[in-house]
Amino acid sequence: MDAADLKAEQFGEDGKLAAATGDIKVGTDDYFTVGATGSKNSLKQFTDGGRSCEMGDYTQALNLGGGLKTNNGQAGLGFTTTEPVKVIAYVAVKAVNDKHSFQYAAANGKAVSIDMENDPSTVNKIEFTLDEAGQYWLGGNNGGDFLYVEVQSLYQNIQSKEQQ
């Protein structure tokens, strides 16, 4: 999911997804699902010059608003994998707050938290592996501005190393 590729028309008239609008698919081959439950997710335009990371310069982000709910995808970005994967995400906090963390969890599962730099202008690079196939949700305890998310097959990486 690359926030630079998101279009305003994918979101509702007010720029937010709503239950009436429904979830939307984003990313290569519509791999990711942006949850519409709770009207928490939106396309955010940066008005302060944007954000930069290894993946490029961004003038907009997928804003996941509020705390992640793993039972319905509220404030979440979801995907399903059929094998073990590595997840790489570039995320900034929405505002200065003393409790910001990136979260991930299996659907209906307990979220795992990873601390993030508490500065909206700083892009955090988050990396972790998921050893089990299944449906997963990404988000934050207070949401976040998601610039880029990539899910890589661990199986293909192992095969590539064995062939070298």
Question: What layout of secondary structure does this protein have?
Answer:
Layout: E1 24-26, E2 32-34, E3 41-45, E4 51-53, E5 56-58, E6 60-65, E7 77-81, E8 85-92, E9 101-106, E10 112-115, E11 124-130, E12 134-140, E13 143-153, H1 154-163
Antiparallel strand pairs: 1-2, 2-7, 3-6, 4-5, 6-13, 7-12, 8-11, 8-13, 9-10, 9-12
Describe the protein in words.
6% of the residues lie in helices and 43% in strands. The protein has one helix at 154-163, and strands at 24-26, 32-34, 41-45, 51-53, 56-58, 60-65, 77-81, 85-92, 101-106, 112-115, 124-130, 134-140, 143-153. The protein has a 6-stranded antiparallel beta sheet, with no helix packed on it. The protein has a 5-stranded antiparallel beta sheet with strand order 3-6-13-8-11. It has a two-stranded antiparallel sheet with strand order 4-5. A hairpin with a 5-residue loop joins strand 1 (24-26) and strand 2 (32-34). The longest helix is centred in the last third of the chain and has 10 residues, at 154-163.
